[in-house]
Specification:
Order of helices and strands of chain A: HHEEHHHHHHHHHHHHHHHHHH
Radius of gyration of chain B: 21 Å
Number of helices of chain B: 19
Number of helices of chain A: 20
Oligomer: heterodimer
Number of domains of chain B: 2
Shape of chain A: globular
Number of strands of chain B: 2
Order of helices and strands of chain B: HHEEHHHHHHHHHHHHHHHHH
Largest interface: A-B, 32 and 36 residues
Helix content of chain A: over 70%
Distance between the termini of chain B: 22 Å
Number of strands of chain A: 2
Structural class of chain B: mainly alpha
Chain lengths: ~500, ~500
């Protein structure tokens, strides 16, 4: 049977949101021992989401749109709109939610409070996909704030004093900035009379030119709100602390969903609200570019000094996230392509790295680099995946990260800012400086922690539910780089967004 | 055609009639009374909503005796909004109370003061409900005074139902404050009558009261109502009273009873006096801001669960006065955003706070204690109550999706529209403080250190009542169009 993807099935964006919301709520009502039902609900929801998204991808590629809305207050509606830009983020979230669900089921087997964990996990994904498809600023803020409180229980999931402290830090940063975001959003509505996201921006250039101070203030308010989740210096401090959460949380949320929500917000702010032209005229993109460039270098330097594997990855996330903000804030279409595509590429590579960190911690109890000596002999698949992800982060072809950096570099030249190349180069060197020692330790050092080589090499090195997702995301990181020229690769999609003027 | 005659009468006298069988004291009579009272108010709010939406606000003279002699009832969007939310909260708390008091009702009347309290809850609450609906529907000041007095007496009695020393003292204190407030109100009524010779709200509003005597009247009535609404700095009576009552009583006192006097203040300032003076409105707003900060800070310092929630009420009531100075814009227009935002916050507070008090009631019911440390680990046993508390707290803090979020969005919009950055900062900062004390409770409840085996089983009905109220705040936060339309029926001026 052939389904025409162009039929405008309005409820499809809603279906995407509900496919994680409904299982999430249902799971909350389950008993702890109803494991099979819980996992089924989770996986059915995750598969359904991927199918819905795949359906919409075809439709949007052919020029269709999907929109659904519900009036909340007179003149303010909950609006879900699946355009090409929204789908870039939604596809990433949907695919990675599916693999992470499998991973989390394996990772948390026999641990307490799984009902709560999976319930909130699904709600987080709901909020992330909701804000990805938000058709206006009101809807975006609604889901963005919801993402904050749904993530909190996952950060403090272990219940240790350390986790509680990290949770507090997380809330202080995100809710504080969230309040500023709400004020900024209301101010935007009061000033411009609208909250709609429109490709190319909705702010009237003459109005912005007439009141530069007011518009700059609004931009900066919104930037603080978005910047906190995107971990732009100096409001990045919560992210490394939040690493006390279980590995699947760090993997999906703190490498993809939550932080990308911030990065995606920066994209919406610059391109769908103000427009890149107005932003440049106001001079606010300079703030973004400088802050992002500084964050890239600063976080990499901080990563050098860490021994805890997850903290290295966290600082690496802080650094890599700013590639996105940097790219979309430059006045050059190639830079935009680089920023957009990095949204996906960084997600794939970083989730792989976090999966590996979780595997090492869960299977061998290895959490620090200094105790990683020789782990590659015990866990060859894991370390192969890790190496692939790390090389991608450094930007080695043909892994995904190279494509991002290539386009960002082109964009830097196109925007007449060759110093961007210097930042990229320095960042790559720093990435190499903190990732290569990890790889060397794992492959060439002697065993220096309390784990044993298996007596026989039969079977997998760990639970298959942990290995399979890791291998999939590692393969994807390589695949999207190798097949970047295809129309359906993230690069192809990012080019489509920019060429069509959907940004 | 909706009959305003019929349904206003049902709203006011339905609960009063229902109180009669409940006086019988037998458990099934109490249930009959509560069921009858709930049904009549729910039905009247549905029909009055339809009536007001289709036919516009209406007036009805009881028994055909109109002004100046008889009792007149007045139905507008504001009244229906308050009536409806009170009905929803009231019905669910009534349902809750049948399970909450079930054990105590088994006790012999003579032997146990607790059993006496349990028997008196239903008739008292039904009387109180009738008085509240009377306030919402009153068209003149004398009716307002009478219903206010009944409300005050019934509410003070409800505090003492727990029959502890502290509760009795708190109840007496509440009674004194309440009576003083009523006296001040009566003084204002008398002054207005001397000046204008009428007590009809509509007639007074048409006369546009100005001058020293009406101003003195307004001042007296406002101080009286502020005391009854526990507006900072007249709030000291509230925490012991609201935390001293049994759980369903606390929920009702905090969620709807204080809204009765709040309703009157709004009617007076924006209905009768057409806004009063900007300076006075600013003063009320500043007191509201003081309440938000002082109440939240004290909430953070409590060791008792119910006291913490009671201080949160002090703080949240502050929001209901912060919108006062925003009501009239620089250009002299009424601000629809301030009006709908302010009332939406009042409605969401009613739903959220009742949910939180009931949830807290469930937690202390399970562990038979009210201290924060005693509820440690309760979340794992009572997940529904835990979520009810969390969702209620979410709405209080103004986090989406909740009616509190929409209310704050609207209030922020009205303050930023007029360039009032100070009010915007107060609204924003209040939300962060709210999160702090809500989280304090959730953290205790989640604590795993003390695993108690001997927790008392909490009836399902009690858990569901709390959760449904909390979900009410969420539903109103996803779809508030009808509510806002209702509030704007006669434009942004709440009259």
């Amino acid at each position: 049977m052939i389904i025409d993807p162009l039929i405008e099935w309005e409820a499809l964006p809603l279906a995407v949101v509900l496919s994680s919301f409904v299982p999430g709520i249902a799971i909350m009502f389950l008993r702890e021992d109803q494991q099979l039902l819980r996992n089924t609900l989770n996986l059915v929801g995750a598969v359904a989401k991927v199918l819905f998204v795949a359906f919409m991808l075809q439709g949007v590629a052919l020029g269709g749109t999907y929109a659904w809305s519900l009036e909340v207050l007179p003149g303010l509606a909950l609006t879900l709109e699946a355009d090409a830009l929204a789908l870039l983020f939604v596809t990433l979230s949907a695919v990675l939610w599916l693999v992470t669900t499998l991973y989390a089921i394996g990772y948390l087997k026999d641990s307490p409070n799984r009902t709560r964990f999976f319930g909130f996990f699904s709600l987080c994904v709901t909020a992330a996909t909701g804000l990805a498809m938000a058709g206006d600023l009101f809807t975006f803020v609604l889901f963005y704030e919801a993402l904050t409180w749904t993530t909190y229980p996952l950060v403090v999931h272990n219940g240790t004093p350390e986790a509680v402290k990290a949770g507090r830090t997380y809330l202080v940063y995100t809710l504080g900035a969230g309040t500023i975001l709400v004020v900024g959003a209301v101010l935007f509505q009061v000033t411009t009379g609208t909250v709609d996201f429109v490709p190319g921006g909705i702010v009237d250039p003459t109005a912005a030119a007439a009141q530069p101070v007011l518009y700059t203030t609004i931009f900066l308010f919104l930037l603080v709100g978005m910047g906190v989740k995107s971990a732009i210096f100096p409001i990045h401090g919560w992210l490394p602390t939040a690493m006390v959460a279980p590995a699947p949380v760090s993997a999906l949320l703190h490498a993809v969903a939550v932080v990308k929500a911030g990065a995606f917000g920066v994209i919406r702010l610059i391109h769908s609200l103000f427009g890149i032209g107005v932003s440049w005229d106001l001079g606010v993109t300079t703030v973004v570019v400088v802050a992002a460039a500084f964050t890239i270098i600063y976080a990499s330097v901080r990563a050098l000094a860490q021994d805890d594997l997850k903290r290295i990855l966290a600082f690496s996330t802080v650094s890599q996230l700013s590639y996105i903000s940097l790219g979309v804030a430059l006045l050059d279409p190639m830079a935009h392509v680089g920023g957009l595509v990095h949204l996906v590429h960084q997600g794939l590579m970083k989730i792989t790295l976090f999966f590996c960190a979780g595997l090492l911690a869960q299977t061998l109890g290895v959490k620090t680099v200094s105790s990683m000596g020789g782990v590659a002999r015990r866990m060859p698949l894991t370390m192969a995946a890790f190496t692939l992800g790390a090389l991608g982060m450094i930007g080695l072809p043909p892994v995904a990260g190279f494509i991002s950096k290539w386009y960002l570099g082109l964009g830097g030249l196109g925007a007449d800012a060759p110093w961007i190349l210097g930042v990229l180069l320095a960042s790559s060197l720093l990435n190499a400086a903190y990732f290569l020692p990890v790889i060397r330790t794992a492959y060439f050092d002697e065993r220096n922690a309390d784990w044993r080589l298996p007596e026989s090499l039969k079977g997998l090195e760990a639970d298959w539910r942990l290995i399979v997702p890791t291998v999939i995301t590692a393969a994807l990181s390589l695949g999207v780089g190798l097949l970047a020229a295809s129309d359906w690769s993230p690069l192809g999609w990012a080019l489509l967004i920019v060429e069509r003027g959907d940004l | 055609m909706t009959s305003f005659e019929l349904w206003t009468t049902v709203a006011v006298f339905g609960p009063l009639m229902a109180a009669l069988p409940a006086l019988g004291g037998r458990p099934y009579l109490l249930r009959v009374g509560l069921a009858f009272g709930s049904t009549s108010t729910l039905a009247s709010s549905v029909f009055l909503w339809i009536g007001v939406a289709t036919q516009g606000p209406g007036r009805h003279a009881l028994g055909g005796w109109g002004q100046p002699l008889g009792i007149e009832l007045w139905v507008d969007g504001f009244a229906v909004a308050m009536l409806t939310v009170t009905a929803v909260v009231g019905a669910l708390v009534s349902l809750y109370s049948t399970a909450y008091f079930a054990d105590l009702l088994e006790l012999e009347l003579e032997e146990s003061p607790g059993g006496r309290g349990a028997r008196h809850f239903a008739p008292l609450w039904l009387l109180l409900w009738s008085a509240l609906n009377g306030i919402y529907l009153s068209a003149d000041l004398f009716n307002l005074y009478v219903t206010l007095e009944i409300l005050g007496l019934a509410a003070a009695a409800m505090v003492t139902l727990a029959v502890t020393r502290q509760a009795t003292v708190a109840g007496m204190r509440y009674l004194i404050v309440s009576l003083t407030g009523s006296m001040l109100f009566l003084l204002g009524v008398a002054l207005l009558y001397i000046e204008y010779g009428t007590l009809s709200l509509e007639a007074l509003s048409a006369l546009e009261p100005t001058g020293p005597l009406p101003a003195a009247a307004l001042a007296a009535m406002t101080v009286g109502m502020a005391a009854k609404t526990a507006l900072f700095p007249l709030h000291a009576w509230l925490p012991p009273a609201h935390s001293g009552a049994p759980a369903p009583g606390s929920a009702l006192l905090s969620a709807v009873v204080v809204k009765g006097s709040f309703f009157i203040v709004v009617r007076l300032w924006f209905g009768v006096y057409g806004g009063g003076s900007p300076e006075a409105l600013t003063l009320l707003g500043l007191l509201g801001a003081g309440a938000i900060f002082w109440g939240s800070i004290l909430a953070l310092r409590q060791t008792s669960l119910k006291r913490l929630i009671a201080y949160s009420t002090v703080a949240q009531l502050g929001y209901l006065f912060v919108f006062f100075p925003l009501m009239i814009t620089e250009s002299g227009e009424w601000s629809a955003d301030a009006w709908t935002g302010g009332v939406l916050l009042a409605l969401s507070h009613a739903l959220a706070k009742s949910a939180m008090f009931l949830a807290a009631g469930n937690m202390s019911y399970a562990v038979a204690k009210d201290s924060l440390s005693a509820i440690s680990g309760v979340a794992h046993r009572l997940p529904m109550s835990f979520f009810a508390f969390g969702i209620g707290g979410l709405s209080l803090a103004g986090l989406p999706p909740s009616a509190g979020f929409l209310g704050k969005w609207l209030l922020l919009r009205s303050s930023l529209e007029g360039g009032h950055w100070g009010w915007a900062a107060v609204i924003g900062a209040g939300g962060l403080l709210t999160i702090a004390y809500v989280l304090l409770v959730l953290r205790y409840a989640l604590d795993r250190k003390e695993e108690k085996e001997s927790m008392r089983q909490v009836p399902n009905r009690m858990e569901w009542a709390a959760l449904l109220l909390a979900l009410g705040a969420v539903i109103l936060g996803v779809r508030a169009v009808e509510m806002v339309d209702l509030l704007l029926l006669n434009g942004a001026q709440p009259w």
